[in-house]
Amino acid sequence: MKSLFKLVVLMVVLISFASCQKKTRPNYQFFPDMYEPIGYEAYGEADFLPNGMEAKLPAKGSVARGHKPFDIDGSLEGYDLAKATLVSPLDSTQIDSPRGGQLYDIYCGICHGKKGDGQGTLVKREKILGVPAFDDQGRALTQGSVYHTIHYGKNVMGSYANQLNEEERWQVVDYVMHLKSELGGSQTVKD
Question: What CATH code is assigned to 76-183?
């Protein structure tokens, strides 16, 4: 009886394998969508979305997760406002000078120089010209003006808001003010 059962099972297995190998007609597709997917245009006619709606812009005034809005605009008036009123929210325990120095070397030192004297590698190779030193009396840098410049950019310098988050920007600001004091620049704003 056992051998008969084994023989029947063997025959069923052989027949199933033989039926899969039939070359005269194609096999049946169990999930045709996996082989022939339906292509949807991402921002085209959106019949598959509720009410036929396409991708929409975020609601006005919404803020992405992990980002804090900067309420001062990128205009010259905004720069002057930041220069006069904006101060670092970091206290002395949150300031990490070595980290600020590393960030400065990565993002700023190539143009402004390791010492903040305006003699970075690109200036020495004459790729860009006119990078002022941090102790330049005509500039009268403050924490707010440096932060505003990092956030929005100024003149030829572009914005670094995408490369540095808010805390990192304030670390760089602290390091720039440290370089300014080493160069002999005053910490007060001259009118």
Answer: 1.10.760.10
